[in-house]
Each structure stands twice: as structure tokens, then as C-alpha cells.
Design goal:
- The protein is of the alpha+beta class and 115 residues long.
- The protein folds into two domains: 56 residues, Ribosomal Protein S8, Chain: A, domain 1; 57 residues, Dna Ligase, domain 1 (2-Layer Sandwich), CATH 3.30.1490.10.
- Helix content is 17%, strand content 35%.
- The protein has two helices and eight strands.
- Strands 4, 5, 6, 7 and 8 form a five-stranded antiparallel β-sheet that branches. A three-stranded antiparallel β-sheet has the order 1-3-2, with helices on one face.
């Protein structure tokens, strides 16, 4: 993962799901789950524009919090920056974007907005 800024965080199934969505949508360069003993970690290589040196993730906003969970039905999924960003949603069918949840006709907890 040379040439990229690497972030390391403790692994959980939710964090793995969010990481997979960010990788699939092109917001991160690559990631690796390291299963060292009792405490697995996730290493994420952040993606940057080669010319302007801007991060691919210009904004990340947490929506659902432990004190106030935010849910959305399949028909009421939020639009982020009028379609320019994504909302990451935790559904009964796994962690996915709001577009995928709308296509599968499932609702869930809106975790965050990425743009």
C-alpha cells in the first residue's frame, strides 16, 4: 500500500461492510483485513487525485448516532448532494448504498453520507 496514506482501525462486521462499499464506489484505493490473533484490524489506503492532491472523500457526515437512530424506508431513501454523493445504509440484506437499497426495495438504518 505504498504511495497512499494508510489508515488502520479495529475491525468489525459493520466497518468491513462500510469499507467494501467505499471501495466498490471508488472512494478508497484498496483495503486489507489483517486477522492478527485476537484483535483483527482493517488497513485502508485512501485515494487521492494525482494532480490536485485532493482526497476522493471530500466530506463524510454521520447520520445515525447511538442516541438517535435514523431509519429510512425503500421509498424515502435520502439523496446526497442531488445524486453526487452516496448514503451508506445498513439493511437486513447487508450494508449497501441508498441506490442499491432502493433497487432491492429494502429500508434500513442510514449510517452516513459520503461525498
Amino acid at each position: 500500500m505504498a504511495g497512499h496514506r494508510v489508515v488502520e482501525l479495529p475491525a468489525s462486521n459493520l466497518k468491513k461492510g462500510i469499507t467494501e462499499v467505499l471501495y466498490a464506489k471508488g472512494y478508497i484505493a484498496k483495503y486489507k483485513v489483517v486477522e492478527d490473533g485476537q484483535f483483527p484490524t482493517i488497513k485502508i489506503a485512501l485515494k487521492y487525485d494525482s494532480i490536485s492532491r485532493q482526497s476522493a472523500i471530500t466530506g463524510l457526515e454521520r447520520v445515525s448516532k447511538p442516541g438517535l437512530r435514523r431509519y429510512a424506508g425503500a421509498r424515502t431513501m435520502p439523496r446526497v448532494l442531488n445524486g453526487m454523493g452516496i448514503a451508506i445504509v445498513s439493511t437486513s440484506k447487508g450494508v449497501m448504498t441508498q441506490r442499491e437499497a432502493r433497487d432491492l426495495n429494502v429500508g434500513g438504518e442510514v449510517l452516513c453520507y459520503v461525498y
